[in-house]
Here is the input.
Amino acid sequence: MAESIEITDEMKSQIGRQSPPWDFEVTTTSVRMFARGVGYTDPVYFDIEAAKKAGYRNLPAPPTYLGTAVFLPGRCSDTFSGPTEGIPSVNHGLKGLLDGGTETEYLETICAGDTLTVVNRLENLDVRESKALGKMLITTQKTTFTNQDGTVVAVQTGQAIYY
Amino acid sequence: MGLSWSAINAGDALPELKKKPGVTQLVKYSAGSGDFNPLHHDFQFPQSKQLGSIIVHGRFKYAALGELVSNWLGHAGRIAKISCQYRGMDFPDREFVCRGTVTRKWEENGEKRVALEVWTESDDGKKTTPGEAVVVLRS
Here is the structure.
């Protein structure tokens, strides 16, 4: 357990830093793969005719699916698939990592055929303490998804816990 | 046809959604989401060994809460917001249940909105993934 965690000026300097934009694709295959991964049986996420009957222009992205990052070897994480170049990073030396929480706000419906330009921004750093993990560094990231028409379609805020 | 705003009331319970993801299901989720953290498929991975098992992705539970809301909504509107916090771990081949209740309904800028409390409940009764959602009904 960490005895104390200091948010240094160097760490603070990362707050407000933005990643370069990266494309995320929403395709019929990627929507079906995600829907299968969750275990959906609703045909709207698999069958284009069923999706159109339900009023969508193509297979809709299931809730919490915001496209798949275009994977380029050497420029993306082999583990998490997203881009690694220019991502705001905080040099804290802590080894433990847990997902804290996720909030997604949708402004428009996302469907297969959309290409989303994604920008990630470090919003905040905070130190908290828990009985189980001791001192924890909480990072808050805000990710903005803009579609091919220049419309912001979703904003996702997430917390990572380092301990 | 389908769900309508006028028929929804605070206190209504959503039909529950039972999930019991095995290793194969988690592998499908990894492929679908692009999250290949070995903690969700490799029992030999150091963090898995330390925990004694692989664990269900937090984001799988988040997506399952999305499925709960989507099944209830039946495409009669759209999800405007969905959130959750990851408070505890779930393990493969163990059932957890996704549940939700209506907390509020109101009109805002001409939109018919409903707020929900959602959560997952593990087989030992723990609410490992509490969250909230807002949906907008078409009628």
